[in-house]
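Private note to self, pasted from the team thread so I don't lose it. Backbone tokens:
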């Protein structure tokens, strides 16, 4: 069956899609769509293992600010954007080259199912694990991850039953927020996550509201 998706997110429709439509023009026609898909996933893995090297137990940002070099956060913003871009243009490129296949769709969404976890696990290093003063508890991290994965599962269960993938608004928003968060961390340091920023609330509190929404 032909791939069918509906995207009503204003961020995607009016801002990101025009950007992807310009980027796709510079991709050579001889490049296989699955190569774009896989390259994006590799970027996510590289980012994850790099952060894991500096912060294997999610404590570096909370107990030892500065342990993770600034360039790592900036590199995280770069890899996240690249993965986001590649995941957004691979389908366009497949249709452009008339090489869309059910296997390609399975490959794309199969890697997305892994990436959904890895994006979240990488981001926890910014927040840090709860150290009694600041940070996020392991239990809360688990809840965050569960919410994201449940949303992913529901979208694809809906696709299975209706034949149409109604893209969650959270996808584009989460990617833009992730990139912005990494850039913010690189610019001002992880301390920004450890200090209240409005009425005693932390930035992580705002992200929780955004995530649940």
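Design output:
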């Amino acid at each position: 069956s032909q791939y069918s998706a509906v995207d009503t997110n204003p961020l995607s429709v009016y801002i990101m899609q025009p950007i992807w439509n310009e980027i796709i023009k510079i991709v050579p026609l001889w490049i296989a769509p699955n190569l774009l898909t896989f390259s994006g996933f590799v970027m996510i893995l590289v980012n994850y293992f790099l952060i894991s090297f500096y912060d294997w137990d999610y404590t570096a940002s909370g107990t030892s600010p500065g342990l993770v070099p600034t360039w790592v956060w900036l590199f995280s913003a770069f890899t996240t954007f690249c993965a986001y871009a590649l995941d957004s243009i691979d389908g366009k490129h497949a249709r452009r080259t008339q090489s869309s296949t059910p296997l390609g769709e399975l490959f794309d969404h199969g890697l997305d199912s892994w990436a959904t976890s890895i994006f979240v696990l990488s981001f926890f290093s910014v927040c840090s694990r709860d150290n009694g003063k600041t940070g996020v508890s392991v239990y809360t991290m688990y809840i965050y991850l569960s919410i994201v994965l449940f949303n992913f599962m529901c979208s694809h269960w809906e696709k299975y039953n209706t034949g149409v993938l109604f893209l969650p608004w959270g996808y584009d928003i989460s990617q833009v927020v992730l990139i912005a968060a990494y850039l913010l961390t690189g610019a001002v340091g992880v301390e920004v996550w450890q200090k209240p920023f409005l009425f005693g609330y932390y930035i992580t509190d705002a992200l929780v509201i955004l995530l649940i929404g």
